[in-house]
């Protein structure tokens, strides 16, 4: 059977962005006195991970420092999960390069 | 006290250059911008003790991207942004019925929009640093009003509202936001006052005179110091009693 072609960015190109995003989120947790944790694509940023608005802003600034992009400056719609964050940033990084 | 990196808008003349001088004399770094270079800017740029910790750029506060790039440049050059002093402002005196849209737009853009954009960019840096202080230079006109200054008053009242909201927003990250509201100061900005207007202001001021920049600079220095660490969301009025 033929392998289905993904309709979104190929997973391989998301890997670096995923690693960066998870590292940044855990840095935000650690620097605010919360424990670092294993993070999966389905984890909700404000739900299971427990980030508030300023944590999200801090995350976005760190990601801009690391990846050189901030999709929210251009009006991207808010994301809910780690997976959605990774896809959004991977797309921005690809568009920038 | 640890030495601070301070972004100051409009540090080339009037109150701004006095604030810049006071901060430089205290040993801190000042990064400022204005629409033109002045004798004060040239003096600070050439000063043997200050030149290495003074940065000036010519830019228009109405250029949003230029403001953002300025903050990025300061952060890259000095490694941090400890304080933002939103001082730059413009004023046009006319009864609102005769005010041009161009003048209204300019005051809204410089006095309010640019202060919000600078606060945004600096707050982003301060969130990652987990420290910072934003000081807005407001005016008693914002709370008292003055005939001929409706738009200016709107922008300064807006700045006071921003001060309180942002103090609530950033407080639990230990980032403070305060404002200083001078009364009428004897600077270039007040040159448009007629003799009778000046006399009226002096009569209505318990301490009987217009303010001087030297009356305001110590308040900026105090707010930059750790001695003021428990004050946030406040508008400190320094007006000789004119607003009581």
Features:
heterodimer; A: 97 residues; mainly alpha; Non-ribosomal Peptide Synthetase Peptidyl Carrier Protein, Chain A; 53% helix; B: 244 residues; alpha/beta; Rossmann fold; 7-stranded parallel beta sheet; 8 helices
Shape of chain B: globular
Structural class of chain B: alpha/beta
Q: If helices are DSSP runs of H or I spanning 4 or more residues, what is the number of helices of chain B?
A: 8
Alpha-carbon distance between the termini of chain A?
A: 34 Å
CATH topology of chain A: Non-ribosomal Peptide Synthetase Peptidyl Carrier Protein, Chain A
User: Which radius of gyration of chain A do the C-alpha atoms yield?
Assistant: 14 Å
Low-confidence stretches of chain A are none
Please bin the fraction of helical residues of chain B. Answer: 40-55%
Superfamily at the CATH H level of chain A? ACP-like
Number of helices of chain A: 3
| Quaternary status | heterodimer
Mean pLDDT of chain B: 96
Total count of domains of chain A: 1
The count of DSSP E runs of length 2 or more, i.e. the number of strands of chain B, is 7
Alpha-carbon distance between the two ends of chain B: 35 Å
CATH architecture of chain B: 3-Layer(aba) Sandwich
The major β-sheet of chain A equals: none
**Count of discrete structural domains of chain B:** 1
CATH architecture of chain A: Orthogonal Bundle
Q: Level of helix content of chain A?
A: 40-55%
> Mean pLDDT of chain A, rounded to whole units?
89
């Amino acid at each position: 059977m033929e392998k289905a072609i993904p309709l979104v960015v190929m997973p391989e190109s998301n890997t670096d962005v995923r690693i960066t995003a998870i590292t940044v989120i855990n840095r935000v947790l650690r620097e605010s006195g919360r424990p670092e944790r294993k993070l999966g694509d389905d984890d909700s940023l404000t739900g299971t991970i427990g980030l508030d608005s300023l944590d999200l802003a801090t995350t976005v600034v760190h990601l801009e420092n690391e990846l050189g992009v901030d999709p929210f400056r251009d009006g991207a719609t808010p994301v809910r999960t780690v997976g959605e964050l990774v896809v959004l940033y991977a797309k921005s990084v690809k568009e920038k390069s | 006290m640890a030495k601070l990196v301070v972004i100051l808008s409009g540090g080339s003349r009037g109150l701004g250059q006095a604030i810049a001088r006071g901060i430089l004399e205290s040993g801190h770094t000042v990064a400022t911008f204005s629409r033109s270079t002045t004798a004060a800017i040239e003096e600070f740029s050439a000063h043997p003790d200050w030149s290495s910790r003074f940065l000036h750029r010519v830019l228009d506060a109405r250029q949003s991207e230029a403001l953002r790039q300025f903050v990025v440049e300061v952060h890259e050059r000095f490694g941090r942004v400890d304080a933002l002093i939103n001082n730059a402002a413009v004023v046009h005196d006319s009864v609102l019925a005769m005010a041009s849209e161009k003048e209204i737009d300019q005051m809204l853009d410089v006095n309010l929009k640019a202060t919000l954009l600078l606060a945004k960019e600096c707050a982003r840096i301060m969130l990652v640093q987990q420290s910072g202080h934003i000081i807005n230079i407001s005016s008693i006109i914002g709370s008292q009003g003055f005939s001929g200054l409706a738009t200016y008053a709107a922008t300064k009242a807006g700045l006071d509202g921003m001060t309180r909201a942002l103090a609530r927003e950033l407080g639990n990250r230990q980032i403070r936001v305060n404002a200083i509201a001078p009364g009428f100061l004897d600077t270039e900005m007040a040159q448009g006052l007629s003799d009778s207007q000046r006399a009226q202001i002096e009569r209505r001021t318990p301490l009987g005179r217009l303010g001087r920049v030297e009356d305001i600079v110590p308040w900026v220095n105090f707010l930059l110091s750790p001695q003021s660490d428990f004050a946030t969301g406040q508008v400190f009025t320094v007006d000789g009693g004119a607003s009581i």
